[in-house]
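Weekly sync notes, structure subgroup
Attendees: PM, AL, DS (notes)

Item 1: joint prediction request from the bench team. They want all two components modeled as one assembly rather than separately. Inputs as received:
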Amino acid sequence: MRALVPAWAWLIGFVAIPAGLLVAIGLASPDDGVPPYVLGLDFGNFAAILSDSFYLGGFLGSLKVAAVSSLICLVLGMPLALGIARSPPARRPVLLLLLMLPFWTGFMLRIAALVGLLRDDGWLNAGLGLVGVAPIPMLHSDFAMYVGIVYDYIAFLVLPLQARLAGIDPALREAARDLGASGFAVFREITWPLARPGVLAGLALVFVPAMGEYVIPELLGGASSQTMGRVIWDEFFGNHDWPRASALAVLLLVALLAPAILARR
Amino acid sequence: MTLRRTNFALPIGYAILYTPIALLVATSFNASRLTTQWTGFSWRWYVELAHDGKLIEAALLSARIAAFSATGAALIGTAAGYALARFGPFRGRRAFVALLGAPLVLPPLLIGLALLLLFVAAQPFVAGMERGALTITVAHMTASLSYVALVVQARLADTGVALEEAAADLGASPRQTFRHVTLPLLAPAILSGWLLAFTLSLDDVVIASFVSGPGATTLPMVVFSRLRLGATPELNALASIILAVVGIFVLAAWRLSRIARGGGHA
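Output from the run, pasted for the record:
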């Protein structure tokens, strides 16, 4: 049992107490001093957030970004996951390694690669120029933001999905085919229902981090690509309103944890 | 039909995945500052990178923070994973699992903000505590030790208790059993947990931005601020070097694991 002491101490000190502080400072009043808050029971922050359409917009923006990107990841990731799961077993580890390799090159540098692709004088516009299309501004738009999120997170969807798909007995599909089912009917009636847990796991692995994503909307998205991540960051670093930022963080925390807690019941 | 269609999906999917990276590597050798105007092969950006003291300093700081935080996360995470796999329903297990799981599901933004609040609140009570490399290391340990615990717990659940029980039956003390049976079994899991923690630390810009002080700027923080101003060709050179290093490591690990399994023609 002594092995647990350092872990308990660490988790209480650096997870439980900071979470408590987040709530406490969310209820504090902003101040000009150092640190910029006065502890108290000020529900003004939560009231202001819940009544201000700017914050609601940020929250809905995050929900939309997370939902749309996880669905795009599913649509693009499903063929990839099927392809990996149905490859010869000897080749599968190589394919998984190749899927994860870009992930190891560093998040910021993958974003740099996308900037080179999407900027006004970038590769995509150079390609469009070859077929006579004038350069289209793509960087700093919702489009660029979705490209960034999907590019960065699709592996998180493909990994659990292909693992699930690889576990499905191919005999089930063959039997359905022999009984006259079309390719699409086999997918709808056999593959999809059996893959559901993998689909849900993959969607969650994209949705949850996308919900709190800050860097991609900031670097690739436009001014209108408002998300909770950007709102909290700006309140904290821009307005130095720590209580407001903390209250927003508490609400985001609740929004992320509530489905997990409900799902467990 | 389904089979033929999915056969197309793989080459197309992987081509899309690797095209931005391939173009980035190509751009890093372009003499021109303009991304797509090829004016000739050049090491120019690598030379400029080598003279960029600020970037190199940040890279060294990041490597140090990553090594320390991964090691700390491996120590505490292994203990936590071992406890979960072997201690049964100990007191407070549910709370323990919840606290351990929180960093896995929370966005870095919340982890960074909450830990900054802690560091600021603790400042009057801890003599000489300043925000910087140490606070970033502590924050990265917190964010990554759950991953180590997860990997270690999974490994212990897979191996079962038979070997440990056999050692105990043969008269080994619990300490000897852990040292000579459990730990060697766990070594690959601890190593992969360490590597995961190391990359998480090297990749993080958000947590570090919150908990860092004026004296400590990590590599992702520098890259982030430069990307905000518009990408520079130097960053392409940096990315290409990291890609080459990672590629060599992965290839080496791949060959070693094939030799170890005895199945490859390495």
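Discussion: The two ends of chain B are 36 Å apart (CA to CA).
Action: AL to compare against the crosslinking data before next sync.
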